[in-house]
Amino acid sequence: MDKKLPVWVRAQDNYAGKVELEHDVDIPTWIVDSSVSKELLSDLYREEKFDMLLDLCGVDYPGREKRFDVVYHLYSFSTGKRLRVKVPVSEDRCEVDSVVDIWKAADWFEREAYDMFGIKFKGHPALRRILTHEGFVGHPLRKDYDPGKRWQLEEDKIYKPVFLNLPPEEDSMFERMTINIGPSHPAMHGTFRLMAVLEGEVIVDSDVEIGYLHRCFEKMAETHPWQQVVPYTDRLNYCSAFINNVAYCKTVEDMLGLELPPKAIWGRMVLMELSRIMDHCVCNGTTLVDVGALTNFWYFFEIREEIYSLLTKCFGSRLTVAGCRIGGFQHDLPPDFIDLCKHLLEIIPPLIEDIDKLVTHNRIWLDRSVGISAISGKEAINWGWTGPCLRASGVQFDLRKNEPYYWYDKVDFDIPVFYGGDVYDRYRVRMAEIKESLKIVRQLVEQGIPDGPYAVDDYHVMLPPKDMVYNQMESMIYHFKLIFEGMRVPPGERYGYLEGANGELGFYIVSDGSPNPYRIKVRPPCFPIFSTFSRLIRNQTVADAIITLGGLNIIAGELER
Amino acid sequence: MVKENELTSPSWITSKLEVIEKWARSRSFWPLPFGTACCAIEYMGVVSSHYDVARFGYEVVRFSPRQSDLLIVAGTITDKMAPVLRKIYEQMPDPKWVISMGACASSGGFYRAYHVVQGIDEIIPVDVYVPGCPPSPEGLIFGILQLKELIKRGRDRYSRKAEVSDG
Amino acid sequence: MRIPDKTKPYRYSLWEKLYLPAIFSGLKVTISHFFKNIRKSPFTIEYPEKRRDYGNRYRGYHILTTRPDGSLKCVACYMCATACPAQCIHIEAAEHPDPNVEKYPVVYEIDMLRCVFCGYCVDACPENAIIMSNTYDMAYFSRKDSIAGIDDLRKPFTVSQEWLGYRPYFPEERKVDLVKMAKERGPVAA
Fold first, then answer.
1. Domain A7-122 has CATH 3.40.50.300
2. Structural domain spans, chain A
3. Cis bond before residue B134 (omega within 30° of 0)
4. Count of CB pairs separated by less than 8 Å, A with C
5. Which fold does the domain C62-172 belong to in CATH?
6. What is the distance between the alpha carbons of residues A292 and A278, in angstroms, rounded to a whole number?
7. How far apart are alpha carbons C91 and C124 in whole angstroms?
8. Domain map (residue ranges) of chain C
């Protein structure tokens, strides 16, 4: 598949001349004509077992005859292979067949591509804007759209819900009623809006509106130099900002072909695992608050505050750390880093144990969460789930084990898997993962900090150390060039991914060799997960919907970017 | 401090009442955290045990605008959210104050972008701006304490408006 | 990889079905925390009276450093303004009458409400002219007040070392001698 197209593609006449292989790319890439794209994708689903649609996005090349690329990223659970499919479309015939009936995950991704680029998807059940508001004119991620051009939202244009799966009304005790929850509602975490049709207290169908925190990360990344994108990545998943930094930097480092020094890798691994703990703390803490268990929240926040202390001592900020730079760290880790980590390893386990004792076997919590919004592994994969939520449905998939990066193959840890697929098992997976992350940190700390530099020794990427800048002309020139001209990344594209706290966090980056990234598409793990929300809460009560939302760990900054 | 001529003036009782009113108001805000983004996580830090805003009497967090008098806008406000924020502010009963927490709410921060409101003062009046992205919990507490001082001295927007309407 | 197409919900153990034992073990935890907090001082940091130790890298209010004679070290090279992702730094340069002396800033303003405190300006400065303090208690009553000029920014430097936050390098911490390493390696190709 890497070198040439498989037999079943070459054998079929209708694919002749319409499917091409692209060479010199990071993962196998096919360029497919838009007339056969749907056919080919469903064949890929059947023949090659690509059972997950990881990501779907558009890319704009204004100079080309066929202006837009629709890019699909596929993953196969049975073979572990990845594939990128590009479908070029022209501006005047800006239409592709929808793949919603193959992968349900495509629903929201296609709406996003429509919203951002104006690409139409034929056969999509309800193609409408998703991130920007109803009063918006134009498609913001097109290259000719001015990044600062805003549109006001008038009150009368506010979003109207679309109920797609509304069953016919039968004789029921209750009259049907539509209610609106959010966006300013504590149960909706401030930024989501749920419109539900109720029969009594049971939700018959619902529609979710997002986009209240669409901060235009992707457009901002296109208008800033490579290194300056790092602070923006902080604000994607702000509960575990450091993992986002690493995911972005790692992808760009791979594009540059940089080899990181061991100290940088070690530091990144320790801090990533601690960030993962922080993220799970917020998720489990707020879920429990949503059902009224408040005490755990204080204990979880004690853990977080302790980790904040470490992050502040390393990078100078509590939440939005901007810790990494492309090429390593900006500064060395503090000299007492190991002691601080050891202190954390002493403090966190007893608190986790306390929380375990408080809630894990508590009948009230069990009755509220067991069997709520259950989803099977197979269905979850079709919806594009990854991460802890998928592992709660019984699929043992973790990129740290399946496709190890950094030193994850050298440390010993387990992947916790549960089979309930419900809110309780999502909670249990996260609690177990906190313990596994602690195990990884403990092993790394026992290993000790590796000696050597903390960043690559390449002044085309990293700023030279300051005392050299002050004293040497040559370093001064490098410094000057890096600041004013920015670093350059060779033209090309890459899909970099790692296991974020919510699942596979992917960065699809296109470079054209200029000082700014040409296109950055984030594959946010909670975007496909949240698109399932309407399906999950169908035939459940409103109270269950609220706890379901908590258990999915939806972070608005990452969902809406 | 009460001056001699104030004691003898006829409005002594009402002005004393005002002092008590200001004293009470400034010490018991009922905040409504309009949290959308990263700042909301730091707001959680403010109410949790390390910073414990209850020490000042500001722990009665209400999510209903009808029951609160201090709107803390924590997080980026987008054009889509703007009508919601305006409505929430209008629903709050007088007297009401607004704290804009963090760079995004105050000025749009580094999101000079097509979907982000460049400062919530486009939509609603703001009493105190707290810089930082996000501000540390201490920063927010400092901001609230500044507002407290302002109200105690009667220099806040609401008291000034009352003065004008009284003539 | 095995992919289940059914879910298997958790089954309660006898201990959990009994309801009360778990409740009591939970109560034991909270009560033990209660007594622990009475004996030992609680976690709370009494903020205005006490300040938390954030280490000496905290990214807070900016400082413009000065030379011994009191003039600004800044040479108005615009590197911080270029490196700033928020574009919140505004500089206007002026030539010194003596051609041997470098340029200096007439106007140096930071819009504190735009600033995201990422520290990029500190990293970009080639003269160690802008650093950060660990001051986090800031609040403004209007957008206009929030623009900090030269006088506001140079003021905090008179305070002691303890107030310093994020700086271009931390000499007391440095272990690896990058300068020596780079010298041994020789110049890199341009």
1. no
2. 7-122, 217-560
3. yes
4. 178
5. Alpha-Beta Plaits (3.30.70)
6. 21
7. 15
8. 62-172
Question: Subunits that touch chain B (at least 3 Cβ pairs < 8 angstroms)?
Answer: A, C
Rg (CA), chain C: 27
Phi-psi region of A84 (alpha: psi -120 to 50; beta: other; left: phi over 0): beta
Q: Domain A217-560: which CATH class?
A: mainly alpha
Side chain identity, residue A384: G
DSSP A79: T
Could you tell me the two tokens for A137? 């004119």
The per-residue pLDDT for range C127-154, each reduced to its tens digit, is 888 888 888 888 898 888 888 888 888 7
Per-residue exposure over B37-48, b if at least 16 CB sit within 10 Å of its own CB, e if not: bbbbbbbbbbbb
Q: Are C108 and C149 in contact (CB under 8 A)?
A: yes
* β-strand pairing of C104-111 with C147-148: antiparallel
Q: What is the pLDDT of residue B8?
A: 54
Cis peptide before B95 (omega within 30 of 0): yes
- Whether the model clears a pTM of 0.80, i.e. scores above it, the answer is yes
**Pairwise CA distance, residues B109 & A398, whole Å:** 36
C165 close contact with A: CB closer than 8 A: yes
Q: What is the pLDDT along chain B (167 residues), one digit of tens a residue?
A: 445 555 555 565 666 788 888 888 888 889 999 888 889 889 988 988 888 888 888 888 888 889 999 999 998 999 988 888 998 999 999 888 999 998 989 998 889 889 899 989 888 999 999 998 889 998 999 999 989 988 888 777 777 777 666 54
Peptide bond into A335 cis (omega under 30): no
ipTM of the predicted structure?
0.88
Q: Which residues of A214-249 are buried (b: 16+ CB within 10 A; e: fewer)?
A: bbbbbbbbbbbbbbbbbbbbbbbbbbbbbbbbbbbb
Cβ-defined contact of A211 to B45 (cutoff 8 Å)? no
Q: Is A208 helix (H, G, I), strand (E, B) or coil?
A: strand
- Using CA coordinates, name the residue in chain B closest to A318: B136
Edge-first strand order for the sheet with A29-32 is A19-22, A29-32, A82-89, A68-75, A52-60
Tokens of A185: 């509602």
Amino acid in the structure at residue A316: G
Q: In chain A, what residues touch B104 (CB-CB under 8 Å)?
A: 215
Residues A68 and A49: beta-carbon distance below 8 Å:
no
Burial of A378 (0-12, 13-18, 19+ CB in 10 A): middle
Averaged pLDDT of chain A: 88
A441 has a pLDDT exceeding 90: yes
